[in-house]
Amino acid sequence: MRVLIVNYRYFISGGPEKYMFNIKSVLEKNGHEVIPFSIKSNKNVKTEYEKYFVEPIGGRDVVYFDEVKKTPKSILQLLSRSIYSFPVKKAIKKEIKDVKPDIIYIIHFVNKLSPSVIKGAKELGIPVVLRLSDYFLLCPRFDFLRGKKICEDCLIKGYTCCIKHKCVKNSTVASFIRVLSMKIHKLTKIYNNVDAFITPSEFLKNKLIVNGFDKNKIMHLPTFTSPSENNDNIIGDYGLYFGRISEEKGVETVIKAYEKMPDKKLKIMGDDNTEEAQRLKKYCQENKIKNIKFLGFKSGKELDKVISHCRYVIIPSIWYDNLPNTALEAFKHSKAIIASNIGSLPELVIDNVNGLLFEPGNYEDLIVKIKKIDNEKLLTKFGKESQKLLTQKFSEQQHYENLIEIFNKLVKEGK
After folding, report:
1. 238-393: in CATH 3.40.50.2000
2. Residue 131 DSSP code
3. Are 80 and 70 in contact (CB under 8 A)?
4. pTM score of the predicted model
5. Domain range 2-133+195-224+396-414, CATH architecture
6. 92-124 per-position pLDDT tens digit
7. Over the stretch 254-265, which tens digit does the pLDDT of each residue have?
């Protein structure tokens, strides 16, 4: 089978890209051809198909919205890519005509490619599968957060709540553009052109169904990973948070907990140049917190070593986290997990089986759970259960078989 995989970045920046390159590798290993469609960037992995990629907003060195210089041209591009882009549709149709894929697998496109990629594929009669990494179909901000609290006002009172509260980038203009795009997409029913939606979590699947999406089109298919080749079941002397250091990830909660426990060690691993990371590092310096260490971004063997030598992993999200890779990496290394009782996390951390759950944002409850979990017999038991869960629900082979079954069914129906 020939699969055209669509994502707004063709380099690893976060969870969606990690998944994209992983599933590309798995499909190719099983004899399928995978062809990318994305945006041109100086950070891209080299590919012969880059000639089909579209130009980015603001230049090929730009990755994030905040880096885009707000010129009349870039603002027009932002509008187009948020709502509908005819140049993007033209580009993907050109690639489809040339490479003749059997199916389109879309990982992420919002605000960079626009849903015109869906329309372009359907106009040429190609089935479209859309994987959802967040809540962009339901929430203008993607994460159901307002400040540090869960907010579903837009679902109850309407999307104008987003504009009123400047939820997107704390900007009335950015919020208006996002709301306008969602209203137009709903009016034009563009997502009716998607043949199947894939959700990594049951939580997201249920959210979509409750809010009017066709349950027959929504497939729950968890992300996957492989067991560690060198799993020594080490129980180290530090708790570990790793992943993106941003407000919705709740890292502040962990810092406040460890501030009250100076006898325990915490390591924080992830890009420490983000605004939130800088704020938290400053907080630690000003309050002379000595038991917390920021490691910066790690990958490959360095990443594996830090995880394998930790005592337990903490996932302190304050948003409806949608099956974070952090949990799977912890499973891979047979680690117990302490996680917020929110979103998909209770699907991953079974309380008192492979870890403990705590109230989101409540550092005092987190302290209680850290003290409870902190004995080697319990950590070993929870770690073994994490490894078992990985094998049962998140294996590479299981994911591949379920995904290819969806692809085969849609391709057969389309012929």
Report:
1. yes
2. E
3. no
4. 0.90
5. 3-Layer(aba) Sandwich (3.40)
6. 999 999 999 999 999 999 888 999 999 999 999
7. 999 999 999 999
